[in-house]
Structure formats: structure tokens, C-alpha cells
Amino acid sequence: MEKNEKWLQWAVELQSLAQAGLFYCKDKYELERYERIREISAEMISYQSEIPIEKVKDLFCSDVGYQTPKIDTRAAIFKDGKILLVHEANGTWALPGGWVDVNVSATENTVKEVKEEAGLDVKVKRIIAVQDREKHNQPVYAYKVCKIFMQCEVVGGEFIPNIETTGFAYFAIDELPCLAEEKNNREQIEMCFKAMASETWEALYD
What is the pLDDT of residue 4? Predict the structure, then answer.
């Protein structure tokens, strides 16, 4: 880990300890101390990243209980040797996907996200990889993320206008557009192409 990321590791650990303490501790004085530790961790993130403190608290200090990673799923869909990417409102391109909702499985979420962002109905064929996001994507977040890439097959549907994407297109590996690097980078797209070309692909994992 680079030196300029070490502060983030410390802040994340402080937040995790404080969150567990707030959930399990019963002593009101100890609860006050854990709450202050959590506030300090949020202040560290805000100061270093220049993100408003209230936004940091919403993203970083909203969970309860033992802290665990968030889960993000991404769908790799191929047609004629090209991969499907959705065009996001900010002009970048990404594999369709997003946070796993609490009431669905990872597979169900993948299907749901493709429908919402590309309008397509798909079925999941296999898992390509399970990754620790901070080992692959920038910028590093103030919380852990587990990314699951799944190869999918289109069975129907068509694009529906929505608030997240403006459309989709298929791209060859040598014609990739400007990617949403925080969600998926070229290395990850190349990994999906390799999986598509392999009949005996075994899921990769960190």
C-alpha cells in the first residue's frame, strides 16, 4: 500500500472498531468514546479527501454491527466477440451492475442491474471472478467492496430510458471507450474476454 493510502487504512480500521463497539457495548461512557472515535475517522476521511463531512458520515458511518464489505456485481455480456458496456450519464462506460440489494442474491442482483441499466433480460452462466476492489480499482474507497464478475447470456429485452444510463453498445477489446475506472478498468475487461474465450474457465479470486 502506498504511503498516501496508509491514512485511509487507519481511518477504516478506526471506523470498524468504533462501529463494533457501538453495537456490542452497553456502558454509556464507553459508547460516547466509541462515537467520538467514529467521528474522528470520518473527519480524517473528510479532511484528506475534501468530501463534506456529512456525506462521509452517510457513506462511511451508517452501518451497524460488525463491519463487512459491500458487494458489487458486474455482468459481462458478449455478442459477436464484443462486450456490452452501458453509457453512463457522466459520459463514461461500464459493465452493467451495482450494489447488491439486501433482498436479492448476487445472481438475482446481476440480472436486475442489467435489466435496469440496459433493458435486457439475461441469465447468469458462470462466475468470472471475485475481487477485492481496492486491489484493482482507483480511487480507494473508505469502505471495503467485494466485486463479483458474472458472464451472462441475453435472452430478450430492449433498452429502456432510465436515470443511470443513456444507452449501451458492444465493443471489441481494441476499441474500448473511456471507462468508469472506479467500477471497471481495462484489466478487468480483458479478464472477461479471456473468460468468454475459455470453455474451462475457473473463477479467479483474491
Answer: 60
| Cis bond before residue 139 (omega within 30° of 0) | yes
**pTM for this one?**
0.79
Residue 84: how many other CB atoms lie within 10 Å: 22
pLDDT band at 128 (very low <50, low <70, confident <90, very high): very high
Please report the beta strands in the chain, taking only residues with DSSP state E, as ranges in sequence order: 70-79, 82-88, 93-94, 97-99, 120-132, 145-157, 165-171, 204-205
In the predicted model, what is the mean pLDDT of residues 88-108? 95
Q: Are 42 and 94 within 8 A, CB to CB?
A: no
- What are the distances in angstroms from CA 165 to CA 91, 93, 99, 121, 124? 9, 9, 16, 16, 21
Summarize the confidence of residues 35-59 as an average pLDDT. 85
State the cell numbers at 141: 474507497
Calculate what percentage of the chain has a pLDDT beyond 90. 65
C-alpha cell at 87: 453509457
